[in-house]
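Chain X:
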Amino acid sequence: MVGITCKNILIVVSLVLSYGNAANILVMIPLPYISHTMNFLPIFKELAIRGHNVTVVSPFPQKTPVPNLTDIVVPNILNDLLDSSSTKELIGKDGLITQMITLWIFGLESMQIVLQFEQVQKLIKDTDSKFDLVVAESWFIQEPFVAFGHKFNAPVIGIMPAFFFPMPAHLSGNHLPIASTPLNKLGFSGHMTFFERVLNFFVYYWDIVVGDLYYLNKQDAIMRDYFKYPGSENLPPIQDLLRDTSLTLLDHSMAIGYPVPLHKNVVPFGGINVRGSDKLPADLQKIMDNAKDGVIYLSFGSFFSVSFLEQFMQDAILSAVGKLKLKVLMKLEDPSLLQNYSSKNIEVRRWFPQPSILAHPNCKLFIK
């Protein structure tokens, strides 16, 4: 199934490119979300293997060189974002609207930092290079990168690291049937009550309207501040550039979601990075084999940290999992957070081999 998905994506991408020729492809994924990058890389590696010249702008270079794939390494700005006073005040707070605004603030602050990088400015001012295709995570708080399509007169493929949020769905022309499709952020089932449908409707159009009037206008201003090249004075509004996106790739699998109609310019590719699991380290293998009641794997991902949560929320989580009979493997950046808990059922590490843990038969639950 994964192979078929990859093949289909490559066929669609090849239709965007010129027939029969190796293309120069620019990939913009400079934000410090390693889980996003690892999920996207199989596509770019395969394009390089098939003879295309792929240039990837990212803080995560290839450990093993890939022929035809060039890394432009930019600084990892994770700590800069986490130290931001505005995000510190909002992250981990309750409230759907607050969470949405937090994501927008992350996007605005990220772009103001990344677009100043020497490597990125060099690309913007480059008058010699030619790219036939631009691929960017422009549907996820990195909208200004669509301007590279205008600069290089190239089609743009937008990547979304999850299922559609309302604004990308709207701008891509793939409006969601909100009477039957619950938004990810709300956690409703496919059988919504009348009240849930009303709330679904409100949040959907709030994101579109406020996102357009507030967030995208600010991203448009940032784009015009940093994209200075011959012809940049004719840059269309960022909303129009996003609407002109030729293809959208969704890191989503219909096997684990509700059925949603998608246009032909939208291709889901969830699971394309799954390549089987490696053998567990000996100590973890022993822990999981000896867990008679099973194992819970608890991870907040590569970006979010438990320390972002208010103290009472940290206490509630750690107290709850500490009382379980099951063994709990917890990915925790700061093990000192557990110093007040003496439970022997919690194994804390900064990193776990996630695919191998999930593949073990004793893994009963994954909390993410």
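Chain Y:
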Amino acid sequence: MNKRLRPYLEVMPIVFLLLFILIMGIFGALIQSFGYFPIIGLKEFTVKYYIQVFKSEIFLNSLIYTVYTTLISSVLSVCMGVIIARILFKTKMKIEFFYKIPIIIPHITVVLFAITFLSDTGIFSRIAYLIGIENSQQIFSKVLFNKNGLGVILSYVWKQTPYVMLSILTVLKRMNSSYEDVAVNLGASRFYTFRKVTLPMLLPTILSTFTIIFAFSFGAYEIPMLLGATKPRALPVQAFIEYQNPNLLNRPYAMAMNIVIIIFCVGSVMLFNSIIRRLVEK
């Protein structure tokens, strides 16, 4: 057996099993979303559940809220990750252990940290009160469980920024620094060199990283469920609530909402990938 192929062949059984579970789950959800659910007597295909979804004010508000929190957190994570990675690369600071910690921490633990530090009775609120900010409790009450999504955004940024840093640092370490040196020797400023020389070379990695964290955040459940507002809810949270409805006649509606989430995520990934390919070709 070819030694190069052996590792791939060894993982093929589990890969096929996971793909089977994933494909069958999506297929089952797709069939039910079109109203075919024989176990409760629904045997005719229809698109009325998709029409109900897009006419629902709850769904539209959830979609807007989810896009808002996901887009803001992803943009902030990418911007902060690129800037911090650039600083670490130039200063040669060895703090890899510290910025990798958030990557391995589960999202449920991030929620616990957010409640401990950012709630109206949390550590930051108490510190603010001790230094003379008497309305600190009122200020921090607007961070978590609020429709502005600030707690969700901050949690995603704290979790995702180190991942962006790791991706960008890997590219910076492999990048030929002679391009920057030539630009500086010709009189270009450091900022101009970064904007015109370094950033274009980092752009494919930046966009691919943005695609990953955007798609993940859009479909994530834990953080918006535990830190988000009760109205509007994030789309995955609303879809799960619809799925839990004890009336099984509501199941096709819930599945239609889940299929919309999948289509939106896949469509976003395809769009960003097409942009990345065009940038690479240039």
